Amino acid sequence: METENKINETIAIQPPKRSINFFIRRLVAFMFNSVFVIILAPCVYLIIMALYALLMLTFDDLQKTIAQVFLSPLFFLIIFTVAILLILSFKTCHGRQTPGNRYMELTVVDENNNYLSFSKSLLRNVLWILSFLPFCIGIIWAVFNTSDKGWHDLILGTRVASIRPEKEIMIPKSAFISFVLGALSIIFLTYPIITMAGLTSSLKLVWYSFYVLAVAIPLAFSLGVYSRILYRKKEAAIWGKNLGRNGTQLSLIAGVIFILIAIAIPSNRTIVYLNNEIQCEKDIQEIGKAVEEYVRAKTSYPESLNDVVISGYLSLVPTFAYNREYIYKVKNDSGKEYFVVECPEPQALLKGRELLPPLKCLEVKYVQTKGLVVKTEPK
């Protein structure tokens, strides 16, 4: 019995051969694997949350500590990265294939055309991540390297190989573009999803991703349908014919998720709290500047915000998101008077920090001469 690590004699590992088709196949395999990872992410997240819920029931005294650890985006990122490394390493050792490699009929071997052991596969995937980090240079290196190897493959002496003879037949460009757009649509959808989960807080990027999706999804679907009709009877590699079909399917999946997220976002607590914080800051600054103008003109403080409206310095008194009035006070500190405009419910706000997780607001107010003051929970 041959060891698991040896190549199956019924599968012919092809010698290295640079071609546009081979490059396209590797790129499509990467897209497939990316979609596989993206679909896996919510599963890992749900498992973590389920474990957290079980621990909550078991260790009541450690509730706060466990919550801080298990709900930490850094903790989720570490667990998710480890899970992906283990799964991909398992799927690329002893002749196994990732979903993308199986679809594109590719495999990973060493310099002697032997399959990788689990430990070597794990090391390769760790090096792949390290190669990906410096602006993808270590991965892009494979495009310009004569052996089609990135840094991780050059270090370990491994390579991606074809298990079937390369068919030098032109691939429908529209089919390839359709698949790429469909796969990218799935990838772009991850940002609104993780923002809704509270792991990031950039509303601007959420809406930018929606703009991209609004163009990419219909275009991918149209090109996919066009490719399936146009190339139905033309000779092409089997995997090339399937690109249009898969691009259509991916764009359909992305479109359905796009609609569901678009419906869910307005009622999502994270998004609502972030939006409320943005609006609250605008309202408080508008009120504060109007009161400052009133004080400069009248040389006295208004009794209420209605006085500022009557005097024409404010068109109307804005109300907080939950129809509550902003709090206006005149304070005296060591004989020095100043006014303050405060948010009535700062706990219902989240302070966005672009790609970083949002923080809960403890205080949002406008202080005379100081301007806007926002206090959040400790980082």
Q: Cα-atom Rg, whole angstroms?
A: 28 Å
**Content-based structural category:** alpha+beta
Main β sheet profile: 5 strands, antiparallel
Morphology: elongated
Unreliable spans: 1-10
Total separate domains: 3
Quick rundown:
The protein is 57% helix and 12% strand.
Question: What would you say this structure looks like, in words?
Answer:
- The protein is α+β, with helices and mostly antiparallel strands and 379 residues long.
- The protein has twelve helices and seven strands.
- Helices cover 57% and strands 12% of the residues.
- Mean pLDDT is 82; it is low at 1-10.
Write the topology of this structure.
Blueprint: H1 20-58, H2 63-70, H3 73-91, H4 99-103, E1 106-110, H5 118-132, H6 137-144, H7 151-156, E2 158-162, H8 173-196, H9 203-230, H10 238-264, H11 269-298, H12 305-310, E3 327-333, E4 336-342, E5 350-353, E6 356-367, E7 371-376
Antiparallel strand pairs: 1-2, 3-4, 4-6, 5-6, 6-7
